[in-house]
């Protein structure tokens, strides 16, 4: 979620739509509690903006603490991904038979 908000503020349904296209989220019921928790933890902040197509929308953006958390997560994710890749690579190598 923080990565989606790192470039520009976005409103809830826009985030739902972005995550849905990647197959990561299918329900609005999961995104709003997450956004509320990120807000409570000080990782995102909100502003209200008028909408031409309906009621005002709550836009979410990262705070400095959110940017730092995203950086930490990205580094940890890279280490995790590299570890999994190493295990998968070694598991798919052909097993050598006994040497004569």
Automatic annotation (TrEMBL):
It comes from the Bacteria. It comes from Quadrisphaera granulorum. InterPro entries: Metal_resp_DNA-bind_regulator (IPR052509), Tscrpt_reg_PadR_N (IPR005149), WH-like_DNA-bd_sf (IPR036388), WH_DNA-bd_sf (IPR036390). This is PadR family transcriptional regulator PadR. Residues 1-70 form the Transcription regulator PadR N-terminal domain. Pfam families: PadR. Gene3D superfamilies: Winged helix-like DNA-binding domain superfamily/Winged helix DNA-binding domain.
């Amino acid at each position: 979620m923080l990565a989606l908000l790192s470039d520009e503020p976005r409103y809830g349904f826009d985030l739902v739509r972005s995550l849905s296209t990647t197959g990561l989220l299918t329900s609005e019921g999961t995104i709003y509690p997450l956004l509320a928790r990120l807000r409570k933890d000080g990782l995102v902040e909100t502003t209200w903006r008028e909408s031409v197509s309906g009621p005002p929308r709550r836009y979410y953006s990262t705070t400095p603490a959110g940017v730092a958390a995203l950086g930490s997560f990205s580094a940890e994710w890279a280490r995790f991904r590299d570890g999994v890749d190493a295990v998968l690579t070694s598991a798919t190598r052909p097993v050598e038979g006994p040497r004569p």
